[in-house]
Each structure stands twice: as structure tokens, then as C-alpha cells.
Automatic annotation (TrEMBL):
Keyword vocabulary terms for this entry: Coiled coil, Transferase
Coiled-coil intervals: 72-99
Upper lineage: Bacteria, Pseudomonadati, Myxococcota, Polyangia, Polyangiales
Any Pfam family matching the protein: UDPGT
Protein name as it appears in the record: UDP-glucuronosyltransferase
GO molecular function per UniProt: UDP-glycosyltransferase activity
Length: 128
């Protein structure tokens, strides 16, 4: 459902907000309890959505807020940029994890190579 959506109406739970961010969707957040009111304020403060208090949520106000959200090109662009930044961070983190695993797997050999111990051939040839 997220890839096909143009916006998201949510109660503002962190899981749903996170998924919307990953997909670059502007949000209309109608918080109920817990972390949701804070998440709504954060989303609106970042320019990634609008906060509609539950006490003001009626079919008419929801419809009006959604129309405003869908017409806001700048908000949609910010949401897309946020998604791109999140994807980049995920890729960088995945690369760091892969490098950490590689080093951990080959730590003993790399240590022996760096000491120049006899009989240990470098894993990568540096010949030009």
C-alpha cells in the first residue's frame, strides 16, 4: 500500500511514521496517545506532514487537511528528500556492517600481514 500512496493518514505511531518516511509520503497525523502527539509535532515541525488534534478531527477537517497536504509540492519534495537521506543512511550502515564482518573474519590474517610475518602472503596483490 505504501508505494502506491500519495500521502498517509495515521495516528502517528513510530512504526507507521517510519514507514511513511521510508516511502517519502507526506503525513496527516491525528494522534491518540503515548508517543503519537510528540511524533505529530515532530512530523509537522520537520515540514513532512500536518498535525490534526483528535479533538478537531471531523470528516470535513480531515478532508480539508488532506487536500492541503496533497496540494503542497514543497512538503512532498521534503518527504521525498527525507526518504532518499534515509535510504543513503541505510546503505552506508549496511556497508559499514559488511566491512566490520570482513575485518572480523580476517582479523588474524590482517594482523599477521601488517606485522610482515614470514610466509604470510598479502590477500590482495599490490603489483602494478
Amino acid at each position: 500500500m505504501f508505494p502506491e500512496a500519495r500521502a498517509l493518514i495515521t495516528h502517528g505511531g513510530w512504526g507507521t511514521v517510519g514507514r511513511a518516511l521510508l516511502h517519502g509520503l507526506p503525513m496527516l497525523v491525528i494522534p491518540l496517545f503515548g508517543d503519537q502527539p510528540l511524533n505529530a509535532v515532530l512530523v509537522e515541525g520537520a515540514g513532512l506532514g500536518r498535525h490534526l488534534p483528535l479533538s478537531k478531527a471531523t470528516p470535513d477537517t480531515i478532508r480539508a487537511e488532506l487536500r492541503t497536504l496533497l496540494a503542497d509540492d514543497a512538503m512532498r519534495d521534503r518527504a521525498r528528500r527525507a526518504a532518499a537521506e534515509i535510504r543513503q543512511l541505510k546503505e552506508e550502515r549496511a556497508a559499514a556492517i559488511a566491512l566490520e564482518r570482513l575485518v572480523a573474519t580476517h582479523r588474524a590474517r590482517l594482523t599477521r600481514e601488517s606485522r610482515g610475518e614470514p610466509g604470510v602472503q598479502p590477500a590482495v596483490s599490490h603489483a602494478a
